[in-house]
Amino acid sequence: MDWFALYPYFLYAVIAVYLALFLYSLKFSKGPLSSIFGLICLANAAYVAGAAMQFNSVTAEEVFFAQRIRYYGVESLLVLNFVFAYKVRYRKRLSPMTGLLISLIPILIMVLVNTNDFHGLFYADVKFFEYGGHLFSKRAPGPLYFISYTYVYFVTAFGIYAFFSGWRKSGFRLKSPYPLLLAGRVLPMLFNIIYQKGLSPFWMDLMPVTLLLSALFYLAAIRKYKILEIGEIYGREIFSNIKEGMLLLSPSGALLEYNDSAAAVFPWLTEKNIKRPVLELDSRFNVEQGAREFRISQGTGDEERIYEFRLTELAEEGELLGYLYVFIDVTDNIRLIEKLKYMADHDSLTKLYNRGRILRELEGLIAGRRYENYPFSLLMIDIDHFKNINDELGHLAGNEVLKRVAAVCVEVVAPEGMVGRYGGEEFLILLPGVSGGKAAEKAEQLRARIEGLTLFFNGRSISATISAGVMDGAVGRDNLRIDYLVSRADEAMYRAKNDGRNRVAVYGSPDAVAG
């Protein structure tokens, strides 16, 4: 088999593949890396076209012309490879100044190649020989030829650094684009060394083959890991430096990326779950049906933490690239808000509802009575001779009495009843669904329980009694106002005090119930 006869057709096939890849990048692929990849394919096609022309040359002039075409392709390819690696590494466009600087050497090389006949600075000598019916040339490097291979190794080294750096920051994950990109950058360098040392078979330039492999590696990295395109905004290294948890999903809802903060919260965020639908990993993450802002709880009891999520669609030129979940731990904020709300509604000493909150609850009961004829009663409770306790034993003793009486009130009226500290030693108790007769029984039960209490403070025993006034909401149905109902309950309570204390009085009933 005449390999020399087949080689040009192989080069033409490679050119066709490059052009197909270029058209594919234009029509079917979007994103900043895809556009650069298309230009890389075009530059490769020019380089291989020059190689094919040189292989078929029969005169020295044709060899030199083909050589210039190859250099046009390879110098453009070097600049584009640098831009590609730069965008992958730094997630941003090249500045105009950097672009100009990186293009100066390729421009200089092209000037030297095209004018070498006049100065011999790039090639000192060119010798021709025939092999297998084909004309080959062997060039002796001139004093400025080192510029060319120095630039090649510089671009190659930068690409290796950029891709290896990205791979290292990804934790050397095999399921990432960086191994493919590294392979695409190292192979051409190895085969170029083989060619420059004259070790390639039949002196053939192996670069068209290796550059095709390199392009296919690049294509696989771009298409398989679209994260590179989204990563123009949200790179892995950016993820690592953000305190908030972040999850990156594909348009279909598959897990693409996450940062350390997210992995510390959700144990299913592991490398083996990359590319799996996140909905299968946690049913709470429903991209299509889920809210754009929501909260998720993790853990139980004292270990429970609450995370607030925000879902953002990532799009470019109208095309959906994926979804980004960003979340923060809002547990402390929520608990602080809950504490402030509690403090706004509760008495700090007894932990009962404060005056404002218990009156708002009463307002709700009034509305229920007014519109649905819902029964309720209220009790006004006052601790008898409380001033004497404070004067004789001190305010700390008085505080203990208030707390114990408050606790008994809650026990007796629970779970439906509501207790609030109305002011000083007065308590207002609401009994939803309870009419006057049963409310009086509840008040008497409460009075008896408190009378039976014995408290000890600093070695001294303390006893306490209460006077209670009962007001049936039905009695005030013609005047359903907070001030009217409370004042009538208060009036009944003072009647109980005037009748000897430690007893219950019902508004509208002439007799107080003695203890």
Q: Write out the strand line-up for the largest beta sheet, numbering strands in chain order.
A: 9-10-8-13-14-15
Number of strands: 15
Strand fraction: 15-25%
Percentage of residues in helical conformation: 40-55%
Q: Over the alpha carbons, how many angstroms does the gyration radius reach?
A: 43 Å
What is the count of DSSP helices, taking H or I runs of 4+ residues? Answer: 18
Largest sheet: 6 strands, mixed
Mean pLDDT: 84
Tertiary shape: rod-shaped
Straight-line N-to-C gap: 122 Å
Supply the helix-strand structural class.
Answer: alpha+beta
Give the low-pLDDT segments. Answer: 227-236
Walkthrough of the structure:
The protein has 515 residues and is an alpha+beta fold. Helices cover 53% and strands 19% of the residues. The chain has 18 helices and 15 strands. Strands 9-10-8-13-14-15 form a 6-stranded mixed sheet, with helices on both faces. A hairpin with a 2-residue loop joins β6 and β7. α2 packs antiparallel against α3, α3 packs antiparallel against α4 and α16 crosses α17. The longest helix has 31 residues. It is rod-shaped, with a radius of gyration of 43 Å.
